[in-house]
UniProtKB/TrEMBL annotation:
Protein name: N(4)-(Beta-N-acetylglucosaminyl)-L-asparaginase
GO cellular component: cytoplasm
PANTHER family: L-ASPARAGINASE, N(4)-(BETA-N-ACETYLGLUCOSAMINYL)-L-ASPARAGINASE
UniProt xrefs under Pfam families: Asparaginase_2
Length: 307
């Protein structure tokens, strides 16, 4: 049983998120509290174009959020297509703790959030609205790879297609317990009502306190098709290292849909019970952040299949 706390999360904005999680972990706090606090950072960050407030809208101009959370006992909570609430992850946690259900969607999720005391906000920022209006000119739905990465050359973007941005986070606390969280505004300019992998337990996130946890980022449809995060955890159960398990899950996507796989990005990130971590992506450009007692701001480039 690992007693060395660690937190890892997707993309370079994971560094700031990990720092908030680390404040809790280093003071003997729970992994569950840590991952919730961690992913709230990009949710509130208006510069982050597709997590929480400031996220890009769907094709009809609505910002709709997907999030889920899972703890060491296998409890989980999730919201999908949630509007008007910045901290979707905290609503997901309330679903886990205050309802007999795992998942609430759309209007019902919003009603529940308001009843729990969350504040109703407008999540579409002027920048988001501008990008949407720009997008309306051509109305082409084409996910852009690695847009989450700050170092992504913006000039390579066709028009204004800032696309996906998800934070997935996994942590082990000082008691050796694991938890995970995942939150996103999903693919920019998606169809209204579209739900991605991020709020789906087993697809965008899975945690098994005996084995480890996994999370994903990228084009959610391909992750749902292959139940990606659950697959990664089950492969670790069979003895795969976190990186080897993530690689196998990426290869499964290629096997199922070879033509699609070449054109899109999907990345998996995994942490096992021993505190070992690893990742694998379809394409170059995925990165993840690692934080433990030794070093708080490591940013690691993910291995990948296609250049
Ligand atoms: C989705 N997986 O909605 C999310 C998007 C994403 O980085 O990960 N973006 O399909």
């Amino acid at each position: 049983k690992s007693r060395k706390p660690i937190v890892i999360s997707t993309w370079d904005f994971g560094i700031a998120a990990n720092a908030a999680a680390w404040d809790i972990l280093k003071n003997q706090g729970s992994a569950l509290d840590a991952v919730e606090a961690g992913v709230r950072v990009p949710e509130a960050d208006l510069k982050n174009l597709t997590v929480g407030k400031g996220g890009y809208p769907d094709r009809d101009g609505h910002v709709t959020l997907d999030a889920c959370i899972m703890d060491a006992e296998g409890n989980c909570g999730s919201v999908a297509a949630l509007t008007h609430i910045t901290h979707a992850i905290s609503v997901a946690r309330k679903v886990m703790e205050n309802t007999p259900h795992v998942m609430l969607v759309g209007e019902g999720a919003l009603q529940f959030a308001l009843a729990q005391g969350f504040e109703k906000e407008d999540l579409l920022t002027p920048e988001g609205e501008k990008a949407w209006k720009e997008w309306l000119k051509e109305k082409q739905y084409k996910p852009v790879m690695n847009i989450e990465n700050k170092s992504f050359p913006v000039e390579r973007l066709p028009g204004n297609q800032y696309n996906h941005d998800t934070i997935g986070m996994l942590a082990i606390d000082a008691q050796g317990n694991m938890a995970g969280a995942c939150t996103t505004s999903g693919m920019a300019f998606k169809m209204h009502g579209r739900v991605g992998d991020s709020p789906i337990i087993g697809a965008g996130l899975y945690v098994d306190n005996e084995i480890g946890g996994a999370t994903s980022t990228g084009v959610g449809e391909e992750v749902i098709r292959t139940v990606g995060s659950f697959l990664v955890v089950e492969l670790m159960r069979q003895g795969y290292s976190p990186e080897a398990a993530c690689k196998e899950a990426v290869e499964r996507i290629i096997k199922k849909k070879p033509a699609i796989a070449k054109e899109i990005q999907v990345g998996f990130l995994a942490l096992n019970k021993k505190g070992e971590y690893g990742s694998y992506a379809l394409q170059k450009g995925f990165s993840y952040a690692v934080c433990d007692a030794e070093k708080q701001d490591r940013l690691i480039p993910g291995n990948y299949i296609f250049k």
